[in-house]
Specification:
Elements (H helix, E strand, L loop, with lengths): L6 H12 L10 H11 L7 E4 L9 H5 L3 E4 L22 E4 L14 H8 L1
Parallel strand pairs: 1-2, 1-3
Length: 120
């Protein structure tokens, strides 16, 4: 999906499905997070909101960039980051929210679109 003649097609396929303008296929989730963190220019003094209920490789790219992960607890019913607790953690240093899912479940983001747009 990321190498050889068909390397670019993986990213193009994701763009078509998600309706994104651009997409870059990477070899694994850790490299995807590293690429995203550095492409966004996240660095020292920045804070990234995420969940502590994730694999450590989700947090390493934030630390590698010199930024600080800010943990938001999970919803005990979904085991995903609790969208209702995110807003209380946002401050002037918040630059991103890293959504991590577990157990092949998607996080419930009802009502969070307003929150994400307010960070823009």
């Amino acid at each position: 999906m990321v190498q050889g003649e068909d390397g670019g097609r993986g990213g193009e396929a994701v763009c078509e499905v998600d309706g994104a303008k651009r997409c870059l296929a990477t070899s694994n989730g850790t490299n995807a997070i590293i690429t995203s963190v550095f492409a966004l220019g996240i660095g020292a003094g920045d804070e990234v909101i995420t969940t502590p209920y994730t694999f450590v490789a989700s947090i390493h790219p934030i630390l590698l960039a010199g930024a600080l992960p800010v943990f938001v607890d999970i919803d005990p019913e979904t085991w995903q980051i609790d969208p209702g607790k995110i807003e209380a953690k946002i401050n002037r240093n918040t630059v991103a929210i890293l959504r991590c899912t577990s157990s092949a479940a998607s996080a419930i983001w009802t009502g969070s679109t307003r929150l994400l747009k307010s960070m823009d």
